[in-house]
Design brief:
Elements lengths: L2 E4 L11 E4 L2 E4 L5 H16 L3 H18 L2 H6 L2 H9 L5 H4 L7
Parallel strand pairs: 1-3
Antiparallel strand pairs: 2-3
Helix pairs in contact: 1-4
Bound molecules: zinc ion.
């Protein structure tokens, strides 16, 4: 189980509640089950991509989407990893049947 660490707001971008860095989830407030599920989906994504490639892919995809949409939040919400996490965050059983490398 990843470690959840409460941090000051200045550690995250404005408007963001949490960030998952490998096996550590940094959060500015207590996480609801839904929020924790969202971050745990990112943990699974990062594990299967062996961590570093996940972050490279994430940033490159965000930059490409930023060029496409010219909107930081719209680009963020359309990163494949975020789309999967947002789509399934309310399903607390999702991780038990999630397919590897299935970012939808
Ligand atoms: Zn996310």
């Amino acid at each position: 189980m990843p470690k959840v660490i409460r941090v000051n707001k200045c550690f995250l971008w404005k408007g963001f509640l949490a960030i998952t860095l490998g096996e550590v989830i940094l959060t500015v407030a207590p996480l609801s089950e839904r929020d924790l599920n969202h971050e745990l989906i990112h943990v699974h994504q990062q594990r299967e991509l062996l961590y570093l490639p996940f972050f490279v892919w994430y940033v490159v995809e965000w930059l490409v989407l930023l060029l496409k949409y010219r909107d930081r939040m719209k680009a963020y919400r359309n990163i494949r990893f975020e789309k999967e996490a947002y789509r399934h965050q309310d399903d607390l059983t999702y991780l038990s049947r999630r397919k590897h490398y299935h970012y939808q």
